[in-house]
UniProtKB/TrEMBL annotation:
This is Cadherin-15. Residues 624-635 have a biased composition (Polar residues). It comes from the Eukaryota. The keyword Calcium applies. The keyword Repeat applies. GO terms for biological process: adherens junction organization; calcium-dependent cell-cell adhesion via plasma membrane cell adhesion molecules; cell migration; cell morphogenesis; cell-cell adhesion mediated by cadherin; cell-cell junction assembly; homophilic cell adhesion via plasma membrane adhesion molecules. Keywords: Calcium, Cell adhesion, Cell membrane, Cleavage on pair of basic residues, Glycoprotein, Membrane, Metal-binding, Repeat, Signal, Transmembrane, Transmembrane helix. The lineage of its organism: Eukaryota, Metazoa, Chordata, Craniata, Vertebrata. It is found in: Cell membrane. GO terms for cellular component: adherens junction; catenin complex; cell surface. Residues 613-666 are annotated as: Disordered. It holds the Pfam family CADH_Y-type_LIR. Residues 12-118, 119-226, 236-341, 342-449, 468-558 form the Cadherin domain. It is a single-pass type I membrane protein.
Length: 734
């Protein structure tokens, strides 16, 4: 078989594009007839396929299968489908293809069947009032669904209506709206409503309309003006912060804007600043208020000059206002006013201890109502200590009782009282004045030595000094610094003692020479720094003890004995009796016991002897150890006391410990317990108070107890001088 070249399509089978107008109403309408070159009468079958035939939209086109005529069966809309592309087929009666499929293109021709459409029904724009001509405001825009390549979609814009004046114009091609003339005034016309039109066919075809709303923006081209030139109002005296009245203004600019908001100033008539003026943000009126209390008696009327302007400056082209100033007349109405204490607080001074009836001060108030005849009376509103009396008419304050320090009603030396002043108006008004009375300190107390009894080592140097202190009930400047000195009446004291200042309240007492052990009473002269100074001679009870290596007291027996200066006679007897019990009842046993006690006193001091050089004390200071050769049993002590006839008979004397106590209780603990139970002495833990009993002593120094513990015989003849209670002991040992 020979190779077949490309088959040439017959010209009759090539179909050119077919044009048909949209909206064609003659239906069915013959569009074209197709033929095949291989046509045999009655031997060719024609068919078409594609959109509008067997594809959506269906049924628009059809073909006569025997003649090849193509028909339009429905109206076309170019805006929906502007062309259709179909395929045409030619077959024999047996269904064999006679020709290759050919293209059939149907073009829909546009008609001006669509009006222009604006993008929105109402267009909005803004322009400031007074804008120059040619100022563009906004652009209106429309579209046309017709073929843009034809005049069917060629649009032109115009303004159909805009009111009188013709203030705006529109670009026919672009739709831009601009100002056309000067003289836009928001206060005259604030809003312009324009009717604009769009037409196709270059303005000769179909048309449509829309609305353009143009708002004029306000500028400050109108100054505020007072509604009248004078305003009158009235204010009560003494009222502060109250509104007196309003001044009214008018402004043509946009209400609520800075161009409209007014600002007021008081220019004249109020040099003291008694009034203020503010703007009411809702009404734009000026509100005048009282800033300082008004006094009818001082000034009963004011004439104020008030100006007004806008918050925002005026435009240069704005005219000046003839009503930018106004006169405001304010009358001050007289009312009853409360009395006034011109001096509040009144401060006065009174000497401490001033007798009752002493004049303190005259504290009066004045009545501001000079045009009204009123009487003021006075009363004490606050007098916590009831120290004062007040004349209700004259206001004279006097003392009712003596004013003394210290008092719970004084605050830093000041006494506070309140005085009430009341007028007789109807209704009456009152005022309160504060009276501060300073109670001036008087130097009526001498300094007191604290404490009046001490213990120190009798050797110069380390341990041979004491820190002395003093207190004074007077307040500064009548107290410290204190002056300590040895009594000038006893110049010989300076040979053994010296006093040097330590600080304003303390001094140091030092031993100059080595002193024997025992109690000493030093007369000291203490003086304060008051005016005039107060001084007092006082006794310092000193117990000189045996000095150890470190300058501390070692002899606890001596410390306990010398401390007896601060306890009662009954307790001293118990301690003395306990010491005497160390002695044997026969001279044969005396010497051995002396040696034993002497050895104990030198080498092993008993712990149950209390050291009164220490402040306080407790159980830990009272721990004892049983000494060999000492009577330990309470029954032994009781028997011995009964034998020698030493039991005290005074109803306030201490009771001896009960024999029912356990054996082995230390002798000195028994004495301590008896002393603690003595109702005439303070508890052990309290501070002891010493009194000066004069110089000299009937009894010998207690140090004789220690000195008796020697190998020589002790002379007890002095026991007969101690009274009937010691007579039994005097008979035994004297």
């Amino acid at each position: 078989r020979q190779h077949e070249g490309p088959r040439r399509v017959k010209r009759a089978w090539v179909i050119p594009p077919i044009s048909v107008s949209e909206n064609h109403k003659r239906i069915p309408h013959l569009l074209v007839q197709i033929k095949s070159d291989k046509q045999q009468p009655g031997g060719v079958i024609y068919s078409i396929k594609g959109p509008g035939v067997d594809e959506e939209p269906l049924g628009i086109f059809s073909i006569d299968k025997f003649t090849g005529k193509v028909f339009l069966n429905a109206m076309l809309d170019r805006e929906e489908n502007d062309r259709f592309r179909l395929k045409a087929f030619a077959l024999d009666l047996g269904g064999v293809t006679l020709e290759d499929p050919t293209d059939l293109e149907i073009i829909v021709v546009d008609q001006n069947d669509n009006r222009p459409l604006f993008q929105q029904d109402v267009f909005t724009g803004h322009v400031v009032e007074g804008a120059e001509p040619g100022t563009c405001v906004m652009t209106v825009d429309a579209t046309d669904a017709d073929d843009p390549d034809t005049d069917n979609a060629a649009l032109r814009y115009s303004i159909l209506e805009q009111g009188a004046g013709g203030m705006f114009s529109i670009n026919a091609t672009t739709g831009e709206i601009c100002t056309a003339r000067p003289g836009l005034d928001r206060e005259t016309v604030g809003v312009y409503n324009l009717t604009v039109q769009a037409a196709d066919m270059s303005g000769d075809g179909l048309t449509t309309t829309a609305t353009a709303v143009i708002y004029l923006e306000d500028i400050n081209d109108n100054p505020p003006e007072f509604t009248k030139e004078e305003f009158s109002m009235e204010a009560e005296e003494q009222a502060v912060g109250v509104d007196v009245g309003k001044v009214f203004v008018h402004d043509k600019d946009l209400a609520g804007s800075p161009n409209w908001l007014a600002k007021f100033t008081i220019l004249e008539g109020d040099p003291e600043g008694a009034f203020t003026i503010r703007t009411d943000p809702y009404t734009n009126d000026g509100v005048i208020s009282v800033a300082k209390p008004l006094d009818h008696e001082m000034r009963d009327r004011f004439e104020l000059t008030v100006s007004v302007q806008n918050e925002r400056p005026l435009e240069p082209t704005a005219p000046a206002s003839p009503r930018a100033l106004a006169t405001v007349r304010v009358r001050v109405r007289d009312v009853n006013e409360a009395p006034i204490f011109r001096e509040n607080t009144r401060r006065v001074s009174v000497l401490e201890g001033a007798p009752p009836g002493t004049a303190v001060t005259t504290y009066t108030a004045s009545d501001p109502d000079t045009h009204q005849l009123q009487t003021i009376t006075y009363a004490l509103l606050y007098d916590p200590a009831d120290w004062l009396q007040l004349d209700p008419h004259a206001g004279t304050v006097r003392t009712k009782r003596e004013l003394l320090h210290p008092s719970a009603f004084l605050q830093g030396g000041w006494y506070i009282a309140l005085v009430l002043a009341r007028d007789d108006a109807e209704p009456p008004l009152s005022a309160t004045g504060t009276l501060s009375i300073e109670i001036l300190e008087v130097n009526d107390h001498a300094p007191l030595l604290q404490p009046p009894a001490r213990v120190l080592c009798g050797r110069p140097g380390r341990g041979g000094s004491l820190l002395l202190g003093a207190t004074d009930d007077d307040r500064p400047p009548h107290g410290a610094p204190f002056h300590f000195q040895l009594s000038p009446q006893h110049p010989q004291l300076a040979r053994n003692w010296s006093i040097t200042r330590f600080n304003v309240t303390h001094a140091v007492l030092a031993v100059l020479v080595e002193l024997p052990e025992g109690p000493y009473s030093l007369p000291l002269l203490l003086r304060d720094s008051g005016t005039p100074p107060q001084e007092q001679q006082q006794l310092l009870n000193i117990s000189v003890c045996h000095c150890g290596r470190e300058g501390t007291c070692e002899d606890g027996v001596l410390a306990a004995a010398t401390a007896g200066a601060g306890i009662t006679l009954g307790a001293l007897m118990i301690i003395l009796g306990s010491s005497i019990l160390f002695l044997p009842r026969t001279r044969g046993r005396r010497r051995a016991l002396r040696k034993g006690l002497l050895r104990c006193s030198r080498d092993d001091m008993r712990d149950n002897i209390l050291n009164y050089n220490e402040q306080g004390g407790g159980e830990e200071d009272q721990v004892s150890r049983t000494q060999q050769g000492l009577p330990n049993s309470p029954s032994d002590i009781e028997d011995f006391i009964n034998e020698v006839g030493m039991r005290p008979q005074h109803p306030f004397s201490p009771q001896l410990p009960s024999p029912s106590r356990a054996d082995g209780a230390p002798l000195s603990l028994q004495g301590l317990e008896a002393a603690d139970s003595d109702p005439s002495v303070p508890p052990y833990d309290t501070a002891l108070i010493y009194d000066y009993e004069g110089s000299g002593s009937v009894a010998s120094p207690l140090s004789s107890i220690i000195s008796s513990l020697t190998d020589e015989d002790q002379d007890y003849d002095y026991l007969s001088e101690w009274g009937p209670r010691f007579q039994r002991l005097a008979d035994l040992y004297g």
